[in-house]
Predict the structure.
Amino acid sequence: MTNEYVKDAIDMPKATWREWVGLIPLTLAVFMLATDMTILFLAMPSIAADLAPSATQMLWIIHIGELLAVGFFLTMGRLGDRIGRRRLLIIGVTIYGVSSIVAAFSTESWMLIASRALLGLASATVMPSTMSLLRNMFFYPKQFSVAIAIIMSSFSAGMALGPPIGGLLLDHYWWGAVFLVNVPAVVVLLAAAPLLPEYRNKQSQRMDLVSVLLSSLTLIIFIFALQEMASHGIKIIYVGLIALSIAVGFLFINRQLHSKDPLLDLYMFRNSVLTNSLISRVFLSLLITGESMLFAQHLQVIGLSPTEAGLLLIIPAIFSIAGTLVSPVLTRWMSPTYAMVSNLLTAGGGAFLLMLTVQKADILLLMIGASLMGIGVGPTITIASEQIISSVPQERAGTASALSDVSNGLGSVLSVAIIGSIGMLVYRWTLTDSIPAGVQPEIANSAMESVGTALAVSDGLPDMLQAIRSSSTVALQSVYGFVTIGFLALIIFVVWKLRDVR
């Protein structure tokens, strides 16, 4: 099936200066969300020292925002189509700014958890509104491709600059500064909001609250169970929660099939471009999220400081940004399918290089491999996102954008669960046979919990430290072997299912 967005370009109006200037606040919003995703991890030690949260509260501080964001992406995408995409963006950004201030000055753990929950709900409004507004601003296909590339580049830039910005703030201010840094961005975005067009589906009826509840429960329960599995292993209670989420999901699907104005129009999935592009986004997130976390950790395992590791990670991010910005040019020279395949081959080559060379601990080789992955993954995500949003009618763009965000969130959670489990199994398996004689049992048991804990307890024990580094390296090598095979499988899927996309 070909794209819905392939009308003759001559009939489509080109964007004016107003639309291009309006792209600036949208880019800023995405950059703000991306930095917020990575900056919190650096602040957690300071937060723990100040607020003294329990272990459970620590997990909720970290995960509740992402949990609610993914759970409400679909609802907010549909709500934007109904009440107005610009209006929803303004509401979401305002809540985001106020919640950031509350988070910065939280004096109790429950206050920070509550503000993080509001930040998650607010981010669920920002991403679908931002991406779907592009359909109202850039009708001309080539300009739409450039706008998508700029938005996705800002996301990559935010992910890369989050750790350095966070480190700088934490070196000079208290941990609340990592939240206050969002406030100026919110002010600028609200001031520039009049430049953005408004769009709402006038035929949309009142939202079905039962469908909202069922969809949110399905996603939240499923993601929560996967996150707990990744942290605590497979237990019967988590398997039961996954079964419950599937059952609730079937109730949601049945209600949509019998609704006159469904929250999610299931007939959208008859569009093979939409469906297969969403599947591609899930698998791509699955391959890169967990790998990125382990790679950043590995840089510290081989002896780099957190600041040094954060600065080095900017290098592959720059290549990812460059590749993303070039993606509109690629899709002019070749079909989207061939462009995705060429980029996936590049990313797979980077993963294969890392698999072969990670044991050498050569910074140059590590950066080359990571940069190849970045320059391949960035354009692939951009092209897939463009196909998702442009493959549906304009009145469904908000829902399509929300589905893209949900697929990315699901892939990320699956990545942490699957790739994290692979890495941890190999790490523990190899470390068991290499713990030096004479190491105290409590130190050995702590080293088995995680690589971070192992590095902390092995301070002053060079033989133990060497064993930990060796086991961690073998684990990362096995992860890159899995990722390389995954890229090959994704290439086959793209060629098979998306070969007719124009």
Observations:
- Confidence is low (pLDDT under 50) at residues 1-10.
